[in-house]
Amino acid sequence: MSDRMKKNFFKRLARRYVKGNISDKQKSLLEAYFDYGQSRDYNAPAEEDREGRILDRVNLLISSRENPPRSFIPYYWAAAALLVICMAALLTFKLGKSSPQPVSLLAVITKKGEKKKVVLPDGSVVIVNSESELHYSGNFDGPERKVDLVGEAYFDVVHDVRKPFIVHSKKMDIRVLGTLFNVRSYLGETTEASLIRGAIQIFLPASNKALVTLKPNEKFVLGSGVMLTPSKQLVSRGRDFIVTAPRPELASTPPRDIEWIHNRLSFDDQGFREVAVLLERWYNVTITIDNPNLLKYRFTGTFNDTGLIDILDALKTSQDFNYRKEGERINIY
Fold first, then answer.
1. How far apart are CA 66 and CA 84, in angstroms?
2. Mind telling me which residue stretches traverse the membrane in this protein (predicted)?
3. Degrees (nearest 5) of the Cα angle 273, 277, 280?
4. Domains of the chain listed by start with CATH number
5. How far apart are CA 304 and CA 265, in angstroms?
6. 187 burial level (CB within 10 Å; 0-12, 13-18, 19+)
7. Which end of the chain, N or C, is more open, meaning fewer C-beta atoms within 10 Å of its C-beta?
8. Distance between CA 288 and CA 265 in Å, rounded?
């Protein structure tokens, strides 16, 4: 059967459908014709051709009403129902063409001795410290702006009361509307959050209730055996965590926790092992401490764009130890 004969045949069936004078077999054949363009189980032609076929079926139905029967009202609803079906098919086709594409996931990964700055889709700015990973979606279309962090990062978050910003790490989540804060969450180390401006809430995994709400200049430290450093005063203590604030005489000094974003390396009453880890990340070296007695040493200080050897020499003036440098390896004894 030629295309023209097929077209005339289905036109006649459509007219009989509107008049109500159609057999069940003919009705099934006509409905199968109308459903043809909606099927996705065949090798579909170009989208423009599919859209044209659906529009042709709508025009076919309208043309079938050029000579309406005397008993018009009962068949009007049949025609209207069929028209709705066709328009629904066209709408489905249109929506299918404009369906959103899967959102891409982005990552910022830094190596030892490296820092990176990134602007998120909402305009928030993040500085990612050495040996860290930040993962986030290519847009923030959902009810939350969520990022995943391993390592350390400094956040300057754009305020949006309708869409909270969530920082997810292995041991805690931070919820914020808009603020300035630092998160430290390296694997195998204490997890910390330091608030500079605004307010943030700390949640433990699988908990819907905030553990604490930090105020500006407060610091949250999660980990067993957490110690209070001399520069801090205790705000609150819980199971495996403490909240601290600077002592009054130090309240006006810049927080040591964010010195790194200004290329300043800072120690706040930290043990030799902690200091060694910081130096490894900062200068991309490997440090071994051969004498376990040296691990009891603690250091406080800030170094502004200083070389590794100069820092080691400065630390030697406060504690008794020696070191040997072989390429990218440092042995402390």
1. 18
2. 75-93
3. 135
4. 3-97 (no CATH), 105-217 (2.60.120.1440), 263-332 (3.55.50.30)
5. 7
6. exposed
7. N
8. 20
Tell me the per-residue pLDDT of 62-106, one tens digit each, with 9 for 90 and over. Answer: 444 444 444 434 444 444 444 444 444 444 444 444 455 556 789
How far is 64 from 95, CA to CA, in rounded Å?
28
Residues 182, 167 contacting (CB under 8 angstroms): no
Coil, helix or strand at residue 237: strand
Find out whether 63 and 48 touch, Cβ atoms under 8 Å. Answer: no
CB 195 within 8 A of CB 181: yes
* Planar angle of CA 60, 66, 68, nearest 5 degrees: 115
Contact 259, 266 (CB under 8 A): yes
Count how many residues are written for the chain: 333
**Tell me, what DSSP letter sits at residue 23?**
-
What CA–CA distance (Å, rounded) separates 191 from 242?
Answer: 11
Cα distance between residue 222 and residue 270, in whole Å: 16
296 alpha carbon, distance to own chain's centre: 40
What pLDDT digit, counting tens, does each position of 234-270 carry?
Answer: 999 998 899 999 998 887 788 889 999 999 999 999 9
Phi, psi for 114 (deg, rounded to 5): -130, 145
What is residue 294's DSSP assignment? Answer: G
Residue found by looking up tokens 């996705």 in the block: 40
Helix and strand element counts for the chain (H, E): 6, 19
AA letter at 148: D
Its pTM surpasses 0.85: no
Q: What is the DSSP letter of 167?
A: E
Answer whether 315's CB lies under 8 Å from 299's CB. yes
